[in-house]
Amino acid sequence: MPIQKVTREEILTKSLEVFRHRGYHNTSMNDLANAVGLLKGSFYHYFDSKETLMKEVLSSINIFLKAQVFPIAYDTTLPIEERMETMLKRFSKTVFSKDGGCIVGNTILETVNLYPQFKEILQEIITGWMDALTYMYEQTHSSEHAIKLAEQTIMEYEGAIMMSKLYGKSHFYKDCYIRTLERLTVHG
Length: 188
Prior knowledge:
Tetracycline Repressor, domain 2; two-stranded antiparallel sheet; elongated
C-alpha cells in the first residue's frame, strides 16, 4: 500500500537512483512514483513533470558538490594528495554508481541537445569539477598544463566508467584513479 507523505528530499534521493539506473528517457513518472511509494497522481502534487524533477535532481547534486566536494580541493591545510583522494572519493560516491554509471555523464549524453534547462546545470557541475582539478594540478604544473590535465582527467573518468560498465571490470576505473593522482607529480 502506498505511503501517504514523503519529503521532497526523499523524492529527489530515490529519483536520482531511478534516473541513474534507467536513464532519463527510459524513466516514466510511474517508475518515479513507485520508487517513492506514491500513486502516479499523487506524485504530481510534488513535481508537475519529469523535466522539473530532473532539473531539481541535477540542481541538488550541484549544490552538494559545491558545498561538500569541490571545496576540498582548496583546503590547503591538507596535503595535496589527500585533497585529491578525498575529493575524488566523495565525487565518485555522489555521481557514480557501479550499475548505473555516472548520472552527470549519462544525462549529458541523453539530454544535452534536447533539454537546455539541464545543460546549464550540467555545465556548472563539470566546470566546478574542472576548476577544482585545475587548482590542484596548478600546484605542480603550469596553469595552461593544469587546465589540460583537468580536462583529460574528466574525459578519462567518463571513459573509464563507460568501459567498466561495458566489460564489468573495475580496473579501468581504478587505473584512472591512480593516473589522476600521478598527475600531481611533475614529470621530466
